[in-house]
Amino acid sequence: MINFPSTFNVKHKKSLNKLQVGSALRDLRKAIAQHMMSYNYEKDDNDTENNYFTLDSFWDNWSGIGEPDRVKIVETVIEDLQELGWNTKTSFGGTALFIYSTKEPPKSCWPDGM
After folding, report:
1. Rounded mean pLDDT of the chain?
2. 7 in a structural domain
3. What is the C-alpha to C-alpha distance for residues 64 and 66, in angstroms, rounded to an integer?
4. Alpha-carbon distance 26 to 23, whole Å?
5. Measuring CA to CA, how many Å separate 66 from each of 20, 29, 52, 70?
């Protein structure tokens, strides 16, 4: 962020909390993209796609966002990834997001989720 957005004006202080959801969605997309770009898919898809994005670690930085908004944000990101051709599944009590290209989820993905 080069500058603060104009909505960060003191006149809007009572609605600043509402900006969290949009900011968290943006940050989650960025964190997942960085997570996925850190793997070498040319080397071995199976091992690479057996890794997962840790949602609970991400939410540690967003304690002000309640569970209903967290669910909506994750659902939005899942829809985004599926539109791009990826398959997704949450696991480990909703704390992990597997992102994979195969029909079947990776072996370490336990069904539980969204």
Report:
1. 89
2. no
3. 6
4. 5
5. 11, 18, 23, 6
